[in-house]
TrEMBL record:
This protein's GO CC annotations: glyoxysome
EC class (word): transferase
InterPro entries: Malate_synth_C_sf, Malate_synth_sf, Malate_synthA, Malate_synthase_CS, Malate_synthase_TIM, MS_C, MS_N, MS_N_TIM-barrel_dom
UniProt record, GO biological process: glyoxylate cycle; tricarboxylic acid cycle
Domain called Malate synthase N-terminal: residue spans: 11-73
The organism of origin for this protein: Iris hollandica
The protein's name: Malate synthase
Any matching Pfam family: MS_TIM-barrel
Enzyme Commission number: 2.3.3.9
Amino acid sequence: MVAMGYYDVPEGVDIRGRYDPDFATVLTRDALQFVAGLQREFRGWIQPAMECRQEAKRRYDGGALPGFDPTTKLVREEDWTCGPVPPAVADRTVEITGPVERKMVINALNSGAKVFMADFEDALSPSWENLMRGQVNLRDAVNGTISFHDQARNRTYKLNDETAKLFVRPRGWHLPEAHIFIDGEPAAGCLVDFGIYFFHNHANFRAGQGAGYGPFFYLPKMEHSREAKIWNSVFERAEKSAGIRRGSIRATVLIETLPAAFQMDEILYELRDHSVGLNCGRWDYIFSYVKTFRAHVDRLLPDRVQVGMAQHFMRSYSDLLVRTCHRRGVHAMGGMAAQIPIKDDQAANEAALQLVRKDKLREVRAGHDGTWAAHPGLIPAILEVFSASMGDKANQIHTAKREDATNITAEDLLQLPRGSRSMEGLRLNTRVGIQYLAAWLTGTGSVPLYNLMEDAATAEISRVQNWQWIRYGVELDGDSVGVKVSKELFGRVVEEEMARIEKEVGKAKFQRGRYRKACKMFTRQCTSEVLDDFLTLDAYNQIVVHHPKASSKL
Ligand SMILES: CC(=O)SCCNC(=O)CCNC(=O)[C@H](O)C(C)(C)COP(=O)(O)OP(=O)(O)OC[C@H]1O[C@@H](n2cnc3c(N)ncnc32)[C@H](O)[C@@H]1OP(=O)(O)O
Ligand SMILES: O=CC(=O)O
Ligand SMILES: [Mg+2]
């Protein structure tokens, strides 16, 4: 029973976010009890895993390099496979991704993609409103009742008869949920995202979309198989408490940190009955390369635009991922091309589409079973590229074994990307980073900027690259400027880029928006002595809004 104006919470749970009757339909006492159970059981596992990340960081700072773990050699060498792929998701040739916003959820499910990855992570600013509305939206989507009326267009959105299969990406292990306290401490954000969604949807999902399996998840930003082991145990506990068959829940893990590239087999092994593959999360991967090597002066990146999938270290990681997944009988998913449709310039639009086609052709030829699309307008072109190569096969798990990738070495995975560094690169990082952060602070987690998709992962590259260049005083040799980056130079760039942003977005929007706040945060992060772990950890404090009155009764 929900008392008017209060969430009905179980013992030890305190909700500090705004009360909303819609939110109360997902924040039920039983759902919160389930989340609290997860938090109580796994907090003692999460904290040590996060301490291990810090320990690894200290080793890398001291000069060590990530590498294959000799103690898990047998896991890499022995023959074993993951559980069979659920028939409902055998074909994942195109997966659209997007935040859990109501209209986008409907559009994505109707988009013609095989899968929709509904995002609580890189594409979402995790405000209380966004998260809770997202849970309501997903519940309605799984029920098949979701609709949306766009007042401005007088258009009503509803689900088609045939829709994409839903995967949900909870936040990473590092992010807290500051609006839900359990036993006096903030809950782990990912357990809130997973727990509420699973609790309300597992039965309908398995009966409908999943055809006996599910729900399905994407798991982000892991650095080690011990973190996959926690997820596996979370899944087992969830299955047990729901009374469903072990191995019903399935997840694709994003390999998007440099240390995790050395743990692909180990991650699949931990999740083997719950796995449905790995994905090349290329943007966070680039971010992680800089972060892992933050103390290595010999590992400086060229301009962000030059760090593409053709670089040896990126190609090696994609090849190894295909080889590993197919050996273990699961999907090897490609990643996100950053280009999006360009509405007002046909030639530029065709050029952007051509870049997407090229990227997808490389992926399908490398053996990937499917890939990501940022926008519905890209789906036909991507489908065309994949079906031209794969014919009517649902995937290439058994046909693209990539034995040639067996010998990929640590050196291949770590090879320094080649290219030049330019003043324009510094300016673009700054312009994009500030505008993205300004959007994030006002509740939007994915935005179009200069005809590209920007989200938390791409913004991280802008931030850490600036930090690295300032920290090591790199010379900008790419556009014949020939200056060294310093805090002073960066200060001038920030001033000039803020003026440019104001001109581009217009005075009114600039005044209304949070550009100044974003600029301050971005500048601090780029110039700090020690590199912050995540842009969004610092920024999260700015979007936490505790309700002035206690909104839960203990
Ligand atoms: C690194 C990573 O983690 S990648 C994965 C995370 N990132 C993402 O998921 C990004 C998803 N994409 C998006 O958010 C958007 O496409 C953006 C921000 C890049 C571009 O947004 P916009 O420029 O506003 O899109 P645009 O105006 O062209 O949208 C046209 C229509 O397509 C819809 N649309 C655009 N992108 C998506 C999407 N990803 N999912 C569903 N619908 C979408 C819009 O809702 C709009 O629908 P409408 O015509 O019914 O109103
Ligand atoms: O999550 C995907 C990425 O590229 O980062
Ligand atoms: Mg990512």
